[in-house]
Description:
By secondary structure, the chain is of the alpha+beta class. It has three domains: 1-74, no CATH class; 98-272, no CATH class; 276-500, q2cbj1_9rhob like domain (Jelly Rolls). Helix content is 38%, strand content 18%. It has helices at residues 4-12, 14-21, 30-35, 41-63, 76-92, 97-101, 119-131, 135-151, 155-179, 208-229, 255-271, 319-330, 364-377, 414-421, and strands spanning 104-107, 110-113, 184-185, 192-193, 283-287, 299-306, 309-314, 334-335, 338-340, 343-345, 353-358, 391-396, 402-405, 427-434, 440-441, 444-446, 451-453, 460-464, 478-480, 483-485, 488-496. It is globular, with a radius of gyration of 25 Å. The relative contact order is 0.11.
Amino acid sequence: MAIQEDLIRIIQSRPCLDAIVNGEDDMLNLETSAVIDVKHPLNAYFVLKQAFVVSERVIKMADNGFDCPWRFHVHKRDLQSVMSGLLNIQIYSGNSAEQVSKGQLSFKGISYFGHPLDANDIEAITSIAQARMRLNSVVQWLEAALNIAKENEKDAEMASMEKRLEKAKKLHDEFIVNHGFLHVDHSKNQSRIVYTNHGLYYPNVLSKAKLLQVQRHVNALKVFEKLVETFKNLSPLAIDPDPKLFQSGIDDDTLPFFLAYFLERNIIELCQGKKDHQTKNERCFLSHFGNPGSYLSPFKYEQLQSSPLVGMFHDFASEFQTSALKEASKVRLKTTPLNVQNEIRDFTDLRSSKVAYFHDQDHPTAQKMSQKIEKALNFHLSTEFYASENYQIMNYGVGGNIVGHLDSVGTLDPIAYQRNLKHGGERFSTFMVYLSTSQAGGRTVFPQLDLSIQPVQGSALFWFNLDSSDVYDTRSFHMGCPVLYGNKWIANKWTKTLAQWRQYPCRPNRTSYSLL
């Protein structure tokens, strides 16, 4: 997965590229690449796609002594990852497939113009949408391709796109007739929700019997939507479902996917900034949290949610500290692995980012930051060997995001729970330091809590993953939204349960911890 720093090194390699291309502008548009703004995801994709053409020759020339800052392969899966990121932008940002394909992105009234996609790019993204079972997105991208063909007056292309679009719409409608609006596909060793519109494209061509069948699916959908409201405080994991849910093929195995399906609607609104965290603000104050050393320089703390506790520390890290961690991690970055149905994968469209790990002793900034966290939260991070995990430094790629997840599931996974007890216990809390400001997108959202937080460099987001009975709190289910414009860096610090029991003791009644 290429990140912005990779793309900048590609642009800085212009002498190598000049020597390779020898004036052949069709191969690589050097003039454009030299001045391009890779904060825009469409521009970033343009640079990466062009570099893919000549990456092998760049590396050979560098091996022969040519001065070239860029010495890494651009793989086909790098392009696929970026295209998957562009699909994420279309799904979550409120920009249509046509807007994305034209490079005309907007977020909260601000427009960002970038390099447009060509027909082959749109075709590739459509294929990714199909593979991800996003049948509604397939239609939207084909509609975008058709409209662009009409604007360019390409008759042959228009005729082809019209046929493909009609076929995609019919497949979409047939799927609803046969499976309803709620369906989980278990093929290809990965279960996925199949996403459709909540309406048909061609209702007039269906028989009366099929229309009645669709109406039953609509009624089942409405019933389920009402029942989902009763689970407002629960994540799509480990719930005791109402028997009424077991209609239209809903069972214990498929219920989590369907809950995720309905959570996504709220996630989309939160990702678009329609519910800023200020609306949930409960309290802002300066506090030393009982630490004498912080009386003269109290923490700027904002409590966003009391149960479960979610808070924001403003101006927690300085610009020097955030820059130091980013620079130190660049040489260590690697593709972020993700557990997908008990299989660790280096490449998945569920997460697009790179990661590096730092022990507190690896870097003076990491050590100082841990000392500051200890003061802020009254935690033990270094007194015991397994008091906390190493810092996880992450940089999100083009359209970078991470699928909704929990940082700890407690006893839900008994095997992992027993293993974790040997290494300090479960992840008790999460302390996320924003190392950069995302200019558009990239929000951290908690769909059950209606919280949406825009990353601001130096601020830190904090929450508890477990309650006072050491049971995971499902309401901490969260997601990192796609980055629409800019660059997103974070540093995660997870504390472990066993080292914190004196400051945060277990209690028989399930209550949320508090810093107040």
